[in-house]
Structure formats: C-alpha cells, structure tokens
C-alpha cells in the first residue's frame, strides 16, 4: 500500500491584514502547560463538548509509522475495540499556531456529520484532546492513485474491484465526488477543502468518501462562515476567497514549457482573504479542478496541476482561453475529458464568476454528464 496523505495536507490561511489575529473557531479551549512546557491533563478546564466518548484503554495505535503528516496533524492506523480504525492527532510540536482550535473544529464537524454518507465514518474522540477516530474504510486516497500518472484510473479500478473503461471510471469518480459533496451540503455544511488528498477510496463500500472536515463551514451555526479568514489550498480554492497581494519572479506564460512556463521561472505568491462569505459554490469550483486533474493524464502530478492553476489564473480564470492559447499542442491528451463531456463540466464548474458557476446540486439534478 503506498503512503497516503489522508486528511493531512497543509492549507493556506489567508487573512486580511487588518485581522491578523483572527482565529479559526469561535469556541476557545484553555491549554495548560507546566514550567517545562509539558501538557497537563486537566479535564475540569475544558468545555463539556470536549469530553471524549471513547475509552483510551480500548485503543491501540502504532505511532511509529504515520500514514499521513501535515502542518498541524498526523494520521495513524490503529485498533479500537478489535476494529481497524484511522487515528488523527494534532501535533504538539507546532509553536505559535492555534492548533487547539483545529482540533475543536474537526471534532465539531465530525460529530455533526456522523450520519453523513459522503464522509468517512466518524467513531468519536478518544482521550482528552488526543485522538479523533474514524472507521478504516481504506487508506488510499485519490491523490495516491493520481501519483501513478497514466495508471491512476487502473489503480482505482483495482482497489474497488471494478472492470470498466477509463471513461466509465472517470464518470464513476465524478458522480461519487459530486454525491459525497452534495451529502455534506445536505447537512448545511460547506467542505471548503475538496481535493484528491481528501477523497478516500472506500474499499469496503465501493465508493468515494470525503475526509478532513476541520475546515468545514457550518451554515446553521455560523462557525467558519466569516469571510475574514479563508482556509484553502491555492490549487483548488475558488478565486472569490482570496487575492494575490504579492508575486515574485512571475511572468505571464509564454509558449515554451508544458504549460508555457519555463522550468526556471519559479514564483512565490502571497494571499489575502477577500472577505467573501463561503458558499456551496466554493466546493463546486474545487470539484472542477479535481476533475481537470483526474481527466488529463499530464496534469495528474501535484506539480503539474499547481502550475496549470497558476496559468489558468493568469488567463483570467478562463480554462477555455488557457487550453487554447497556453497549453502546448500535442502535450496534453484531452481525449478522455472530451469523449465523456467532462471538459464542458469543468468549464462550468471553474467559472471565476460565482454567479455563473454550475452548482453541485444542479449538476446532479440535470444529470449533467453522468450518462453512460
């Protein structure tokens, strides 16, 4: 089994310069440290919300080999009460970060989405501010499959024991991603971080489920609904969430590289939140970029899709202009997205204007391209 980035990929936090102290969660947690900075377990200092529902004595975790590591958390395989589980803990070695609020946000969202069919099945919290536990339905993510390049769709079929064409597999993945996202929206949540690394290939149930729900916005309670802070992956994030405030060593793409960018033309971008209130259309945009990566073999590496996104942004966010004027003829194989009609779907999902963007629900209701 290849290593996985299960629910751990780092996000960019974009905050307006006037609000640099904004925190991710309105719920605050008091942490207590001894003089030598060791954590002191004081249950009485925590809100009742944080009382764990699982017994630590029933959990065994192999912490010697994480299956995923991110900026704020690590993920491991474990056993709880005899069942295989996925265990996530937030790193205590991260200094100067609001790590405890990441734990609280993920716990709150995971509990609220416990009966949501589109997310990994959550079991509960174990230990005080220690572990969040999910059923182990598979450790391979769509990201892991895409790392195999031209063999990505074959790996999905092998993992799920499916026998079909690449076109059928692409349609299957698209429908599964859309239905998983729609189920989250049905709970009045906005995921805000949909991407291949957060899509688990559920071997037990033959489907795709989403993970890493800590960035979710809760429409009902207003948690994470403020536009004062945008949590996003700049490759998949919708453009209305952020703006580039600094760019170094950047030029408009010129025909000469895979996407018209010379290899030595590296760039460093800095982002700032726009203040736009999150909507379900954020997730629609992320699905569009995900489909672009899955459907075009030359874009399946993380570096390739990141470069493509920067070049698309340089074209005003218009994927049609990017494909026509920037992409080098003969380099990218568009046959799969053209044959299935996915290209048209991608173009509507990634419209830079949210008011013109296709929603997840509408795509499903109109059976937009999922016909066999």
Task: Write a structural description.
- This protein has 372 residues and is an alpha+beta fold.
- It has 2 domains: 12-135, Phosphorylase Kinase, domain 1, CATH 3.30.200; 142-365, Transferase(Phosphotransferase) domain 1 (Transferase(Phosphotransferase), domain 1), CATH 1.10.510.10.
- It is 28% helix and 17% strand.
- The chain is built from 10 helices and 14 strands.
- β3 and β4 (73-80) form a beta hairpin.
- It is globular.
- It starts with 11 loop residues before the first strand and ends in a 7-residue tail after the last helix.
Provide the descriptors you would attach to this structure in a database record:
about 375 residues, two-stranded antiparallel sheet, globular, single chain, 14 strands, Phosphorylase Kinase, domain 1, six-stranded antiparallel β-sheet, alpha+beta, Transferase(Phosphotransferase), domain 1, 10 helices
CATH class of the largest domain: Mainly Alpha
The ordered H/E elements are EEEEEHEEHHHEEEEEEEHHHHHH
What fold name stands as the CATH topology of the largest domain? Transferase(Phosphotransferase), domain 1
Gross morphology? globular
Q: How far apart are the termini?
A: 31 Å
CATH homologous superfamily classification of the largest domain: Transferase(Phosphotransferase) domain 1
Give the class from helix and strand content and strand pairing.
alpha+beta
Mean residue pLDDT: 83
Uncertain segments are 15-46, 250-266
CATH architecture of the largest domain: Orthogonal Bundle
Keywords: ATP-binding, Kinase, Nucleotide-binding, Transferase
Organism: Ostreococcus tauri (Marine green alga)
Pfam families: Pkinase
Binding site for ATP: 88
